[in-house]
Amino acid sequence: MDGISLLTITVLAVFVGFEVVSKVSSTLHTPLMSGANAIHGIILVGAIIVAGQAGNPWVLAVALLAVVLATANLVGGFVVTDRMLEMFRGRGDGKGPR
């Protein structure tokens, strides 16, 4: 594939992803975040594999950038999920919001 095709696919994926996520109700957001975290874990493993097999310095740089961004996305997803789940904990168990 040439660069224009890859860029077109990326832009379309961003638009479709934005539309899909923006239409999700708040009651379904936490379960979907948990599933998205699992997907981001797979993406992180793929980025690490690509970085490990990179022969070209540009490919290595992009792969390492992908590792950093996937890690930030994965950790951020778990932090947001944890904060959302804290809202549903009971106040009597000592683990609820303060």
What's the helix and strand layout?
Layout: H1 3-22, H2 26-52, H3 57-86
Describe the structure.
By secondary structure, the chain is mainly alpha-helical. Helix content is 79%, strand content 0%. The protein has helices spanning 3-22, 26-52, 57-86. α2 runs antiparallel to α3. The radius of gyration is 18 Å and the shape is flat. The termini are far apart.
Q: Helical content, roughly?
A: over 70%
Average pLDDT, rounded to a whole number, is: 81
End-to-end CA span = 53 Å
N to C succession of SSEs: HHH
Strand content: under 5%
Shape: flat
Which blocks of ≥5 consecutive residues have pLDDT under 50?
Answer: none
- Protein structure class: mainly alpha
Rg, rounded, reads 18 Å
Alpha plus pi helix count:
3
The tally of beta strands, per DSSP, is 0
Short description:
By secondary structure, the protein is mainly alpha-helical. 79% of the residues lie in helices and 0% in strands.
Task: List descriptors.
single chain, 98 residues, mainly alpha, 79% helix
